[in-house]
What we know:
Radius of gyration: 25 Å
Number of strands: 22
GO cellular component, one term: plasma membrane
CATH architecture of the largest domain: 3-Layer(aba) Sandwich
Main location: membrane
Helix content: 25-40%
Strand order of the largest sheet: 6-7-8-3-9-10
InterPro entries: AAA+_ATPase, ABC_carbohydrate_import_ATPase, ABC_transporter-like_ATP-bd, ABC_transporter-like_CS, P-loop_NTPase
Membrane topology: Peripheral membrane protein
Structural class: alpha/beta
Mean pLDDT: 86
CATH topology of the largest domain: Rossmann fold
Organism: Agromyces rhizosphaerae
Amino acid sequence: MVQTSTSASAAPPALELSRVVKSFGAVVALSSGSLTLEQGSIHALIGENGAGKSTLVKIVAGLYRRDSGDFRLRGEEVDFSNTAQSKAAGIAVIYQEPTLFPDLSVTENIFMGRQPTNRFGRIDRKAMRTEAVEIFERLGVRLDPDRLTEGLSIADQQIIEIAKAISLDARVLIMDEPTAALSGVEVERLFAVARSLRDEGRALLFISHRFDEVFDLCDTVTVMRDGKYIDTMPISDTSIDELVRLMVGRDVTEMFPKLPAEIGEDVLVVDGLTSTGVFHDISFTVKSGEIVGLAGLVGAGRSEVVRAIFGVDHYESGSVQVNGQPLRKGRPTASMAQGIALVPEDRRKQGLVLDQSVTRNVTLAIRKRLAKWGLIWGGLENASAEIWASRLEVKTAALDAEAGTLSGGNQQKVVLGKWLSTEPKVLIVDEPTRGIDVGTKAEVHRLISKLAQDGLAIIMISSELPEVLGMADRVLVMREGRLTGEFDRADATPEAVMFAATAEGAAA
């Protein structure tokens, strides 16, 4: 049952949605969405991609209007037809990637569109700055109110969005996957800010796929599945296994399905790779049928190394060989020709053309192969896309649907399909399950394991230590641009890997 206030004297819930329905034509995005946020609490909303979480949030934010159901704010019925009405009612949404004006200052971004004026009708910049400083002091963060927002980290941009919400006296704050691009230190700072807002009596909704963060931060959790409300409970009365079962409607007993694979000869040999100030003297090998996990803290240089191997980034010295043949540096096309595929960390910006069809995205890397007499044959393009969409079980209404309309997990499958269609010998996957729900994570893990079983040499970068330990045959650890540890699967314990990843592991 959805938790509601039962005492006549108690304050009404900060926000309450009950049996909300929302359809887009024949597609039912929400068939029964319910959520109750109490004042002075942090409430988690979890569910697989496609569970209806985003649709529910967009109704609260005024982007969508519900078809039916109840929506109350502090006990009063509301019906927003635009985002301005939602903001005016005291609701603020902090997204994973904030949208600020890069050429304006921190203070100007906080007060954009509602700058205070002095008695002469001019913008009162002193009053704006004073209030910005007071808000940052309340939040316990150090941020220069006068600097331009261009170049600020995602973490600092989110703090600016929170400051904007406080300046508007927002009583309900929604954080949608706010930690996906943050380091551990940045996450802790964000959580400290969230707790201080809760202690002021505000209601916070926290949406995340990371269970450790849900249990660390939240007081209550609501689970959604297939557009429906499933259950709400105090976080202290549940467990990860129980939440997973409620989310997927079944027990996910094998999150890391490691299939037996015959490990063969060296396919990729990296020797002494160095890029001044980024990474130094990186040497390792990857064999056919082997999954090599690349672990380390955010900023250790893992992504930079694989980007240099693929030819996207520059390096000064060292060499790379594929099946005994030297690889020309700085040439992604040469890497592709020799059988290297790179699934990038940011699939939306670097892996997909979001406004192009699924078919076009899957076949992007093999368009020359599909061309005849200088023309792309639609039949060949559709047939190739159909093969990989079917093999990877991409869930989409049609292959001509835009890639941007797919869920995060299905977008990741499309990127994988694009690169697997090139028939690579070496597959590099950078954060393969970031932002993907728990059920789809198991599918991606199973796919990666099957590819290794088929003989691919795989490098997998992940910031989730259980993922590295569960999938890798061998774990390489980086710290500050250097390799500081190498462990076989049997010896790769969480303690050993973290020791090598931190400053204490310098002598490892």
